[in-house]
């Protein structure tokens, strides 16, 4: 289908809803965006305009800003946001109760063949769609913040989601230049947050047990693992870290990783430990400089994204 005739409904105009609106609109899709909060809805176009202008200034979109913004329409009701759409992307607050309530309305108002996708970061689809007549067209499409710079989308269907729905969602995300991956079975936190959690838990353990400062542990990622992992995955990495590939790597080092994994305990995210890391961080970055630093991070991400887009994968 021609993208200009496709409409996507975005429900929730907070951080992630606004970002999705930008992702769909920059790919030529018409977007209707709705929020239950009138102030949030009133503010969203200004915030999206800033975002698109920033992307334009950084050569990450090439169309005139006004042309992209013209494809986004704030609407006053959820019913209107769901009318004539190919997909609704839901972005309300992260509770099962909120998702159940909004999904009941989305299922009532969206066309029967529209995909109902949730941005939830942790909740499996089956927790909030079981009782719906249209549960076969529901799934999670979890973006990575900010989705206009980090393209990964985790598509996680429930056991009752139809294959056609999964294929449609994967195709639409690919069409808007995202990188969809399929989570084959439901699991709390999907893939990205579980991998991130494993790394953070180990960093907290190493810190708590006095092996290194928080700053040095961050350096392990930013001057070490993260450099490789920014353009290739850990499996791809170890495939090149022994002359004959991944089996050779596992034969050389697998038993050591297996031994080490026995010493890698869970972490309780103890408040006292977090306060010590907070104190260390605030010495490096004052609290009132956090937003400036976040802006710096966004610019670094934009530069990295431009670099990635210029490279073959
Ligand atoms: N923030 C992140 O980094 C991130 C990343 C990936 C996914 N997510 C997920 O995206 C979702 C939204 O997160 P966010 O960070 O944008 O939150 P947010 O608080 O910025 O925005 C939520 C918006 O939903 C609106 N809302 C609440 N109930 C509503 C309803 N019934 N109908 C319509 N609008 C309603 C609120 O008014 C608010 O504007 C959550 O499920 C979150 O887990 C967040």
What does it look like?
This protein has 313 residues and is α/β, with parallel strands linked by helices. The protein has helices spanning 15-26, 38-57, 65-69, 78-82, 96-109, 126-129, 163-175, 192-208, 214-229, 234-239, 246-261, 271-284, 290-310; strands at 7-11, 30-34, 72-74, 87-90, 115-118, 138-143, 152-157, 179-182. The protein has two domains: 3-182, NAD(P)-binding Rossmann-like Domain (Rossmann fold, 3-Layer(aba) Sandwich); 192-310, N-(1-d-carboxylethyl)-l-norvaline Dehydrogenase, domain 2. The protein contains 13 helices and eight strands. α7 (163-175) links the parallel β7 and β8. The mean pLDDT is 96. Bound molecules: nicotinamide-adenine-dinucleotide (NAD). Residues 11-17, 34-37, 40, 91-94, 98, 102, 119-121, 142-143, 145 line the site of nicotinamide-adenine-dinucleotide.
Quick structural gist:
The chain contains 13 helices and eight strands.
The share of residues in extended strands comes to 5-15%
Identify the CATH class of the largest domain: Alpha Beta
Report the uncertain regions.
Answer: none
Per CATH, the architecture of the largest domain is: 3-Layer(aba) Sandwich
* Shape field: globular
Characteristics of this structure?
single chain; 313 residues; alpha/beta; Rossmann fold; N-(1-d-carboxylethyl)-l-norvaline Dehydrogenase, domain 2; 8-stranded mixed sheet; binds nicotinamide-adenine-dinucleotide
Topology at a glance:
Elements: E1 7-11, H1 15-26, E2 30-34, H2 38-57, H3 65-69, E3 72-74, H4 78-82, E4 87-90, H5 96-109, E5 115-118, H6 126-129, E6 138-143, E7 152-157, H7 163-175, E8 179-182, H8 192-208, H9 214-229, H10 234-239, H11 246-261, H12 271-284, H13 290-310
Parallel strand pairs: 1-2, 1-4, 2-3, 4-5, 5-6, 7-8
Antiparallel strand pairs: 6-7
Helix pairs in contact: 1-2
Bound molecules: nicotinamide-adenine-dinucleotide.
């Amino acid at each position: 289908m021609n993208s200009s005739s496709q409409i996507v409904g975005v429900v929730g105009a907070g951080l992630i809803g606004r970002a999705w609106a930008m992702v769909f609109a920059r790919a030529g899709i018409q977007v209707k965006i709705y929020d239950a909060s009138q102030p949030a809805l009133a503010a969203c176009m200004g915030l999206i305009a800033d975002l698109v202008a920033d992307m334009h200034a950084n050569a990450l979109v090439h169309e005139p800003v006004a042309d992209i913004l013209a494809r986004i329409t704030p609407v006053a009701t959820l019913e209107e946001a769901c009318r004539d759409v190919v997909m609704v992307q839901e972005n309300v607050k992260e509770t099962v109760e909120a998702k159940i309530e909004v999904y009941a309305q989305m299922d009532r108002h969206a066309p029967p063949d529209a995909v109902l996708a949730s941005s939830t970061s942790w909740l499996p689809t089956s927790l909030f769609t079981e009782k719906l007549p249209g549960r076969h067209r529901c799934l999670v499409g979890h973006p990575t913040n900010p989705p206009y710079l980090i393209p990964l989308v985790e598509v996680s269907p429930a056991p009752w989601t139809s294959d056609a729905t999964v294929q449609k969602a994967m195709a639409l995300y690919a069409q808007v230049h995202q990188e969809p991956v399929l989570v084959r079975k439901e699991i709390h936190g999907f893939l990205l947050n579980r991998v991130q959690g494993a790394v953070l838990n180990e960093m907290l353990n190493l810190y708590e047990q006095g092996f290194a400062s928080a700053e040095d542990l961050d350096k392990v990622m930013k001057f070490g693992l993260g450099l490789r992992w920014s353009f290739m995955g850990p499996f791809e990495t170890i495939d090149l870290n022994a002359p004959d590939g991944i089996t050779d790597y596992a034969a050389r080092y697998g038993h050591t990783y297996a031994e080490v994994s026995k010493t890698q305990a869970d972490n309780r995210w103890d408040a006292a430990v977090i306060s010590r890391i907070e104190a260390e961080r605030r010495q490096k970055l004052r609290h009132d400089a956090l937003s400036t630093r976040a802006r710096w991070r966004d610019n670094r991400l934009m530069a990295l994204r431009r670099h990635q887009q210029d490279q073959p994968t």
